[in-house]
Amino acid sequence: MASVLVVEDDPVIRAALIEVLTGHGYAVRTTHQGFEALREITRSPPDIVVLDLGLPDLDGLDVLRMIRGISRVPVLVATARDDESEIIRLLNAGADDYLVKPFSGGQLAARLAAVLRRSVPADVTAAQRPVLQVADLRIDPTARTAHLAGRELPLTRREFDLLAYLADHADQVVSRQRILAEVWQQPYLEDQTVDVHLSALRRKMGEKARKPRYLRTVRGLGIKLVSSP
């Protein structure tokens, strides 16, 4: 039984989440404060965290960054905003996924299951995968690190998975739908999900969308990580 830590300050919403997640077979713990969430994660790490951004003691985004400083536990963020800048901000801070309020209990349970499917196999199978080298880009699936020209890239979990997938398919054009199906394991998501992460990767790699060195968009077809200029 997977354990979920729900960080939500509204008692009505918190009670509803407990009922929904318990009904889907999760062991649920809750807290309404950011500091307490950090203590819980340190003391007894859950399998996944559901984090609301509107907390009484700390800004939810700061809590997310603090979680990333102490743990690799998957975090699904609940947000009231669905504009691109907000999504980019959350993903760059370390969110593994997000849901825009209001959302159904079924949608939450499905997203949690998908995030857990992505996080567990990556760690289990990493030791079986070799280091990927594409020109100056070096990706180590075991250590889950990526270096470009000797410089470590500060990637979130999802950014690393996307980059590793593209490197494993270097010089191949991969459609966004295929990426969503194989990296996110959620083919029904919007293409924008891939584009947001691609934009973050380019920025961290020092690339420009108009003239990228590695991550190239092939109009109408998909994304390609190229091994040579």
Description:
- The chain is of the alpha/beta class.
- The protein folds into 2 domains: 3-124, 3-Layer(aba) Sandwich (Rossmann fold), CATH 3.40.50; 129-225, Winged helix-like DNA-binding domain superfamily/Winged helix DNA-binding domain (Arc Repressor Mutant, subunit A, Orthogonal Bundle).
- It has helices at residues 11-23, 34-43, 60-70, 84-93, 105-125, 157-168, 176-184, 192-205; strands at 3-7, 27-31, 48-52, 75-79, 97-100, 132-134, 137-140, 145-148, 151-152, 215-218, 222-225.
- The strands form 3 sheets. The protein has a 5-stranded parallel β-sheet with strand order 2-1-3-4-5, sandwiched between helices. A 4-stranded antiparallel β-sheet has the order 6-7-8-9, covered by helices on one side. A two-stranded antiparallel ribbon has the order 10-11.
- Strand 1 (3-7), helix 1 and strand 2 form a beta-alpha-beta unit.
- The longest helix has 21 residues, at 105-125.
- Residues 121-127 have low confidence and may be disordered.
